[in-house]
Write a structure and sequence with these properties.
Blueprint lengths: L2 H35 L8 H20 L8 H5 L2 H34 L11 H27 L19
Helix pairs in contact: 1-2, 2-5, 4-5
Length: 171
């Protein structure tokens, strides 16, 4: 792992743990208040709604970093071994470009959604859209890292694979 991957994973784990812990504490406190006093915190529904996108995006990026997404390998197994490395590099560069394009488009919408405020806390809607942009940028960085790793991988021989290599499933 390189510095970029470690930074992305560390940041996503931090977002994941903080958002999960805050959501849990708020929901437990609000439930206790509701049963003990019959009242609840006015803002207790808004904070989990604001943090949930950060939790989900962190999980998406972590899954990508650990290769835990669904993959299809039949195309790579169908092409000649000499083309696999070039195809991997080109594919990862296209993926990185698409993530960059999506992140840029999301950033263009931040001004529009900034005026939408949550009812009680008045938090701008750009906060949740910002998490999508940050997550897409992180996914783009991971795709660039994968392209770089494919570039550094030596070219494969022309020998057919005895058995297709599939990543281990993460349940």
């Amino acid at each position: 792992m390189n510095f970029i991957e470690l930074a992305v994973i560390g940041l996503c784990r931090l977002f994941l743990w903080i958002s999960t812990a805050v959501i849990f504490v708020i929901l437990v406190a609000n439930t206790v208040l509701r049963y003990a006093t019959g009242s609840s915190l006015q803002w207790a529904n808004e904070v989990p709604e604001l943090l949930f996108p950060w939790l989900v995006m962190s999980g998406v990026v972590l899954a990508a970093a650990h290769g835990a997404h669904i993959t299809t390998t039949f195309l790579m197994e169908a092409i000649p071994a000499t083309w696999r490395r070039r195809t991997a590099i080109a594919t990862w560069l296209v993926v990185a470009g698409l993530y960059g394009t999506l992140a840029w488009a999301t950033c263009q919408m931040l001004d529009i959604v900034h005026d939408e405020k949550s009812p009680i806390l008045q938090v701008p809607g750009s906060l949740t859209y910002g998490c999508v942009a940050v997550g897409l940028l992180m996914l783009g960085l991971l795709a660039m890292k994968s392209a770089w790793n494919a570039w550094l991988t030596p070219a494969m021989s022309n020998e057919p694979l005895d058995e297709p290599v599939a990543p281990e499933a993460h349940w």
